[in-house]
UniProtKB/TrEMBL annotation:
Domain GH3 middle: 300-364
GO cellular component: cytoplasm
UniProt xrefs under Pfam families: GH3 (PF03321), GH3_C (PF23572), GH3_M (PF23571)
Organism for this UniProt entry: Roseivirga spongicola
Protein name: GH3 auxin-responsive promoter
InterPro entries xref list: GH3 (IPR004993), GH3_C (IPR055378), GH3_M (IPR055377)
Record domain GH3 C-terminal: where: 392-498
GO molecular function: acid-amino acid ligase activity
């Protein structure tokens, strides 16, 4: 076996063995919170909320959640971060951040500017190293550890604005990769800096045969399109005709399962699919070991303190933001299998900040989670209480029942003839076809079996569902119309009635 690969794998094995496992996840988290409070106690935010006194209390965790309200982006920005954007120092974190991550989530609204400090960049690197160390848990050959890694995110050509740099978090991270990693990193600095996504992907497709890729990282929808382009441009059957040593795909940003069938169609060899949770606010979790649920371990000791709000309607406003005094739990207080909305406090000066995602714990001892949806993407107009995780499961059953690949979908509650229905758009890969009426009937049956609230709603105010089968490319074109392609851009799994009607008109007139 290759000597270099053997050496690297042995180093990874040793690194995994010396990782500190002597503390519980809760003990790690208590340390993180105290370090955050101590570092930020002399900032404007720390003085306002009396961090010095919190540190002197017998129970900093309890006092922290009593004194500091829950924030969403708009509350944090309007009260504090706008000063940071304007160049003021020591607002919610010491100094002034060098970067701001631009994020519009899945809404297409005006970009948010989220501070990214040097400490956060180091924390992201640290968590990335831990993910690399965790590869020793998987059955990978020594030769894998010599292969190149393709990271497809947003452009690394960041924009300089008033003394700081702005871009999506994937572009910021890629522009700060450590020197020792550059020999493995693809597409390389020149291609990664191309602003136009289509041009960047074409450049990748042209160079692809000269690379020896072992792993790929990025959001599934854009990675899938990139792989299709590479295969088509090089007149290949599957991606393994070009990269025969490709073994690992690190997914992220959205649940991977809806994309599995279409990914499998692009490959001819077994793939190891791993999940990651890199948000604009930080590297929150990664898949640390093999498991059937693709559950991820929270990054419990890398500059992020986590809290969890039980996902109940009375704790959130109509926009999915937590009310300021919503009850929050620490790691020692949560239960497995229940949905929670996350609050994070970080080394970038986010405090009790709603990340907007809902999660469920799959293993408390290991602090492992899976993403179940979004706080604002919870279809409950007529009491159906339909979560994204249940939608994903239902779509997977449709794929199996009809032999389809449905990598993209969205749904919304709309009124037709004065009554509510759920309007679904399912994006099919390639030129696949099916009967819309048969798919509608099956989807309705599956959702009734998976969600008792949906079943009750269907007997009352929710009069039916309507499925329209469209091309998956329609979703990508819609994203391209509303905001730039690639990077952190994700298809919204739920749309309000106005946006859904706009989407329907866009598809109809394409």
């Amino acid at each position: 076996m290759p000597l270099l690969g053997k050496i690297i794998k042995r180093a990874i094995d040793l690194g995994e063995q010396i990782t500190d496992n002597s503390k519980t996840p809760q003990e790690h988290q208590e340390e993180v919170l105290k370090k955050l409070l101590k570092k930020a106690k002399d900032t404007a935010f720390g003085k306002f909320y009396q961090f010095e006194q919190l540190l002197e209390s017998d129970s900093p965790i309890e006092e922290f959640r009593k004194k500091v309200p829950a924030f969403d982006y708009h509350r944090m920005h309007d009260a504090w971060w706008f000063k940071t954007v304007e160049g003021e120092v020591d607002i919610t974190w010491p100094g002034q951040p060098e970067y701001f991550a631009l994020s519009s989530g899945t809404t297409g609204n005006k970009s948010k500017r989220i501070p990214v400090t040097q400490e956060m960049i180091e924390a992201i690197r640290e968590t990335g190293v831990k993910q690399v160390l965790s590869l020793s848990e998987h059955d990978l050959p020594d030769s894998f550890f010599e292969k190149q890694i393709l990271m497809l995110g947003s452009s690394t050509d960041l924009e300089e604005v008033n003394g700081h740099y702005e871009g999506e978090i994937s572009g910021i991270s890629a522009s700060n990769i450590p020197f020792w990693f550059k020999g493995y990193y693809k597409p390389g600095e020149d291609i990664a800096s191309i602003e136009d996504w289509d041009e960047r992907v074409l450049a990748i497709a042209k160079q692809a045969p000269s690379w020896d890729i072992g792993a790929i990282s990025g959001i599934p929808s854009w990675i899938e399109l990139m792989l299709q382009k590479v295969v088509e441009h090089n007149k290949a059957e599957t991606i393994h005709d070009i990269w025969p040593n490709l073994m690992v795909y690190n997914s992220g940003g959205v649940a991977f399962e809806p994309y599995r069938a279409s990914f499998d169609a692009l490959t001819s060899k077994p793939m190891l699919y791993l999940d990651t949770y890199l948000a604009s606010e930080g590297f929150l979790a990664y898949q640390a070991r093999p498991n059937d649920q693709m559950a991820m371990q929270l990054s419990i000791d890398s500059g992020i303190y986590f809290e969890f709000i039980p996902f109940k309607e009375e704790y959130f406003d109509e926009n999915g933001s937590p009310i300021e005094d919503a009850p929050a739990l620490s790691l020692s207080e949560v239960n497995e299998g229940e949905d929670y909305a996350m609050l994070i406090s970080t080394v970038s000066g986010a405090w009790r900040y709603s990340i907007g995602d809902t999660i469920a714990f799959t293993n408390l001892e290991r602090a492992e989670i899976k993403i179940t949806g979004r706080t604002k993407h919870y279809l409950n107009v007529v009491g159906s209480q339909l979560s994204v995780s249940k939608m994903n499961e239902a779509v997977q059953e449709l794929e199996e029942a009809f032999g389809l690949q449905i990598p993209e979908f969205t749904v919304g509650a709309v009124k037709k003839d004065g009554e509510f229905i759920h309007q679904w758009f399912l994006g099919l890969a390639g030129d696949q076809k099916a009967s819309e009426s048969e798919v509608s009937q099956k989807l309705d049956e599956v959702l009734k079996s998976k969600n008792k609230n949906y079943k009750v709603a269907r007997s009352k105010a929710l009069k039916g569902i309507d499925v329209k089968l469209i091309k998956a490319d329609d979703f990508h074109d819609w994203n391209g119309k509303n905001k730039k392609k690639g990077g952190q851009v994700k298809t919204p799994r739920m749309m309000n009635e106005e946006t859904l009607l706009e989407f329907e008109e866009f598809v109809r007139t394409k």
